[in-house]
Specification:
alpha+beta, Peptide Deformylase, 3 helices, 7 strands, 28% helix, globular
């Protein structure tokens, strides 16, 4: 399992619902948490590791590791906050993204148990960022077009890709 990066078409595709939460899904979740730790990230979604399933994991400082399977965003705050985001699939590129300051999400964990979570601050932002991955949306898609084009160009130049 490895992180796929900008340019891979999988990052633009919607992930499929997980029909059965079993040992295979629990193993995928463990591997994703391992990648998250290895890459020193705060969240990673199935599509980022080439798994087109509705699963993501988070682990931010002062919070537990969490697995979200078939998540649904139930509520988002009206108030928004702008904050600099990056992404393991777009290494070295950062941009300000405006998101709701808090959310309420429902999902299932790797044991097949449903849970509802209200989150604010960084955790809410990470959840929304990873949820976007399940929808085929990158954080760069929230950036104005001219700025996005410059950031993609910067990324490609850093990677040695010719535009």
């Amino acid at each position: 399992m490895q992180i796929i990066t900008l340019g891979d078409e999988l990052l633009k595709q919607k992930a499929e619902k997980i029909e059965k939460i079993d040992d295979e899904i629990a193993n995928i979740a463990r591997q994703m948490l391992g990648i998250l730790k290895l890459e020193k990230g705060v969240g990673v979604a199935g599509p980022q590791v080439g798994i087109m399933k509705r699963i993501f994991v988070t682990h931010i400082e002062n919070d537990e590791e969490r697995v979200y399977i078939n998540p649904s965003i139930l509520e988002t705050a009206h108030n928004t906050v702008k904050y600099e985001e990056g992404c393991l699939s777009v290494p070295g590129i950062y941009a300000n993204v405006t998101r709701p300051e808090s959310i309420k999400i429902q999902a299932w964990n790797e044991k097949g148990r449903p849970f509802t979570l209200e989150a604010g601050g960084l955790l809410a932002r990470v959840i929304l960022h990873e949820y976007d991955h399940l929808e085929g949306v990158l954080f760069l898609d929230h950036v104005p077009e001219k700025k996005r084009e410059k950031l993609v160009e910067k990324y490609e130049k850093a990677k040695g890709v010719k535009p």
